[in-house]
Request: fold
Amino acid sequence: MCDDLNTPAAIAGLPLGAALLGVGQQTAERWFHGGADAAWVGERTVRMAEARAAKDWAAADALRSELKEAGIEVSIGRDGRIDWRRA
Reply:
């Protein structure tokens, strides 16, 4: 069966094919966060967490909107953890 599918040749061609597709060229974190300024986003997510802890929903929503306008998608887990990625 390996010969029928020409598996050795397919595997041998993966590095070049992957490079052409951009696969494996960057870490998952870098891909999800893209070119976003991690320090800028991190500072806003910390402020958002603080606003949520203080039940200042207007401030938390304003920070979420600011991030959204910058192309950042924010998700908040059940445990209150805030994750982000480029939209």
In short: The chain has five helices and two strands. The longest helix spans residues 38-53. Residues 34-86 form one domain.
